[in-house]
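Morning!

This is the sequence you dropped in the shared folder:
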Amino acid sequence: MDDTGVSGTFSIGSKVLRVDIDRRTGSLQGITWRDRLPIVLGRGGPAAHLRRRGLSEVHTEEVTEVTASSSAVRLTWRTGPYRVDGSISVAGDAVRFRGRAHWPPSAPPITALEWPSVSGVLPLTRGGSEDALLHPYATGLLLRDPWSLLMPGDPTVAGGLRWCAYPEGFAGASMQFVAVVGDERCLMLMTEDPEGHAKWINGFLDGDRSLTLSVGHANEDLLHPAISPGYDTVLRVLPGGSWRTVADAYRVWAVEQPWCGRGYLRDQQDRPRWLHEDVGLVTFGINAARDRRPWIDEFARIAGSRVFHITGPNWTAGQDYMGHTPGGIDEWFPDQLHAGTIRAARRHGHRIAPFIFSNLVGDREAREGPVPSRMDLDREGALADRYRFDFRCPATPEARALHRDRDVRLVRDHGFEAVYYDIAAHNVVKECLSQRHEHAPGGGRAIGDAFLRLHRESRSAMRAAAGYTVAQGTELINELHIGSQDFYQARGQASPASSLETDVVHAWIKDGRAAVVPVFTAVYHDYGPVRTDGWAKLSREQGDYFYAIAREVVLTGGLFQLNYEYSPLEVVGGVPEPAGEHYYTFPDGSFAARPYRVDEEKVEAIQALIKLRTSLARDFLAYGRMLPPPSVPTERLGLGWFHYNGYRRSPAYEDSGVVHVDAVGISAWELPSGRAAILFNVDRIPHQLDVVRVIEALATPEVRNVTIKTTTGQTVSPHSRERVTVAPRQGLVVTVSSGTELA
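The structure's back. Tokens below.
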């Protein structure tokens, strides 16, 4: 045991990393990395915690046993009938934790082992105002200066991301890490779990206004008196400066896991190429049960490319957002799809995905008696969702058969190229307490695996029926489904002019204290699936922030989406969409008729972005790996927004404001054959940029060819000038290649 000379602590470490541990509690007190100033931690509380159902705490006492060497230590805590055994080891630049909780079968079961709990985290940068808490909430959330932003003890997100469930893409963690990002250093805690066990990824403020980073491991079998995670939790100190440092460090481990086993998206032979290469625009929520031919024709005019329509939910009798859901297969068919609307889309070569509430129990079957396939959820428990739905358990034969048979019939009857599952595998808790289903009562991996199997079976059956790969998509995403989904819908990049997963942080995003960042894209884009985002409207009334939203979605590899879930289509040919024909009405039965017209300035910008996505930068945006963008100075401007496409309880509904953005945005991408920078100007006036700095940022020793192409049809010589002009609401692509054909 190597005593540091500090009272009550001892140290373990490697050549590059040393950690100081409190003898009494087992908590980390400090970390010294590469002989730099130490990160001071610790409040003296226990490093391990136990939780019963409902997350009531079982207090662990002081450490009762310690066995240590120069690079590892074993610790034991006891409290009543419960025992926790933990180990901490240091190898290279990583601190590794393993733990196990166990108890007599007669004792009340423990539902969560929280270990490690790295408490007492103070600002990494002087004052903390430049630091941020990075969390994979939804698909990436940055909370700036969390020591000033968060409120200790608040049970909502205002207190921090506490008991944030994984794997869960809506109100939880889509990946398994949390980090504090500073200018010079980042502190990152992650789990190396290749099987997707249920856990909580936490970053929250303590009573002394210090941060805690912790992982809670779920009891996935409540009949078994132990929690024994078979994977390491790892703490690392990384170079600072950006959330991208954390994303890159996580990616090194993540892309080697089973969910990336199909390899790079560009190499997958059964991928739906049309989705990644031909689609320039997505619509979401068109009422395909009604005649919408004029609007289908209008979207074809606007896009000039293939449009992908994800329909509204009411293509089957009674299904809508107001609690009307079909049950068995006989309630889903015959469908109510409007033949003229479908033919119009086909005439333009558009693709269609019917919207399916894929795992909800039907209204009628719920009224008529017990539903064998129903998930048995503890509504007040550790994994409780904020919303209230009756779910089908994916581990039941009934749920699997309905899912498969419904999908196959849709494809067989209509030749659809895609299906879309809402409130599905990525925003449903992975818990079922039933003792009658094909899993242990609890949750986690068994439920997650059941969702994967359910989707695989449907995919295989649809391919057999159609003779081609039918694209599958979901509302949101988590990393376990990288290999099982082709696209997902998100709303975060439209914040603050959007609703749903960002509602809880709307005020912070609006005033700049929080930001949605594309962490999931940075880690997984070149493995798939593709994001569709934007929550946009074509009206002048939405405001000019529209241009920045569209730019952000396209330049980060997504498909730009126009959304019609909670508000009508724009006026076409002088005709508004009849309000009474929309599938959504507010709870009081009303619906805001908004006879807003198509803004042709927005149409021109969309067409320029579509050219980037489907032509000039197609391969990079479809299949590339996202790189940190070159740092090129540009002017800032304020863009106004008004959000009317939402439900009334949303804090964003009919809210408005101004967002300040770079006039010219830039992203960078890499393929085996080269790199590219993609730029877009959202201003009404042209802007000049130092193109030499862009080229230098992309250059590698193998570089031979540089090309610059614009969405206005020009080819610019990179040697003719040091500055290049980006036209108003237009883009350009700087490609630096080895001279070989782009993949």
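Headline: The chain has 15 helices and 43 strands.

More detail when I'm at my desk.
O.
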